[in-house]
Design a protein that fits this description.
The protein has eight helices and eleven strands. With 271 residues, the chain is of the alpha+beta class. It folds into two domains: 93 residues; 140 residues, Trna Endonuclease, Chain: A, domain 1 (3-Layer(aba) Sandwich), CATH 3.40.1350. Strands 6-9-10-11 form a four-stranded mixed beta sheet, with helices on one face. It has a three-stranded antiparallel beta sheet with strand order 1-2-3, with helices on one face. The chain is elongated, with a radius of gyration of 30 Å. Keywords: Coiled coil.
């Protein structure tokens, strides 16, 4: 569907690239300062059967053969020339990115629809679906609460949902706090014909990519591990790969849910 297109705002990435180029530029200028005594030295190359011969031009314009023991002069001269060429390209790239950012409007295409009067909006299907419209369709496509195993109702999320564990409540509340759309216990069909209900389906609004999030609450308990670890294998066989479209969190009786690690995963995949 055309409306599912998402134009990603590249402003921060481009600004970060400018900063990276500036850091490389500082290092280059430092290296060029060390090679400043090579200023004005011109090296000529002559190809021979046995390899290459190098010459430099003296003050009278005469070519002087550079002996092998003095080859370090050639290396420094070539290195300096290379640094200067790279520096020129960095400055060009930096100028082009900065000029692009000056005129860049990541919402320009969406603005065309937003500026239409209400009468036109009722009859026009926008090429770019707004985040709210996309999320609504995403939720309709992936209905939640498909796990038929009863919930005892002990844990209630800030969004008013009943979940099965304290850690699931912590995760759901984190998603809500960080404005990450999520669906609790959606259904996914596995390659073996069976169906599973991962704990969450979460959405990166910026990229509009979905991830399943599965939490394993007692990986130190043998019976729990025997029952649940085959699920990871079934997920992989069905194309749900950790880091690609599956995120996993876990805990033990002595080591509770690591919130620092959870937040790192949220930043990495969902922001």
């Amino acid at each position: 569907m055309i409306g599912g297109i998402k134009i990603v705002n590249q402003t921060e990435q481009l600004k970060n690239q400018v900063k990276e180029l500036e850091e490389v530029l500082k290092k280059l200028d430092k290296q060029l300062f060390y090679l400043r005594n090579m200023q004005g030295i011109t090296i000529r190359i002559c190809k021979q059967k046995s390899g290459y011969q190098y010459y430099k031009t003296d003050d009278n314009g005469k070519r002087v053969y550079i002996k092998h023991k003095d080859k370090e002069i050639v290396r420094k001269a070539f290195q300096k020339s290379y640094y200067e060429c790279v520096r020129k390209e960095i400055l060009t790239q930096k100028y082009q990115i900065e000029r692009f950012l000056k005129f860049y409007n990541p919402t320009a295409i969406e603005d065309v629809y937003d500026k239409l009067c209400d009468a036109r909006k009722e009859l026009v299907t926008p090429i770019i679906c707004t985040d709210d419209d996309y999320i609504e369709k995403w939720r309709q496509t992936h209905p939640g609460e498909k796990n038929t195993f009863p919930i005892d109702g002990q844990f209630v999320t800030d969004n008013g949902e009943y979940v099965r564990s304290k850690s699931e409540k912590i995760l759901a509340d984190l998603f809500l706090k960080k404005d990450i759309p999520y669906i609790y216990e959606p259904e996914v069909e596995l390659s073996n014909g069976h169906k599973a209900c991962p704990d969450f389906l979460v959405l990166n609004k910026r990229t509009r990519k979905s991830y399943y999030w599965e939490h394993f609450g007692r990986v130190d308990a043998e019976e729990y591990a025997i029952r649940n670890f085959p699920k990871i294998y079934a997920y992989e066989k069905s194309g749900l790969i950790q880091g690609k479209n599956l995120i996993i969190s876990m805990e033990t009786e002595k080591q509770p849910l690591d919130l620092k690690l959870v937040n790192e995963k949220i930043e990495m995949y969902l922001m």
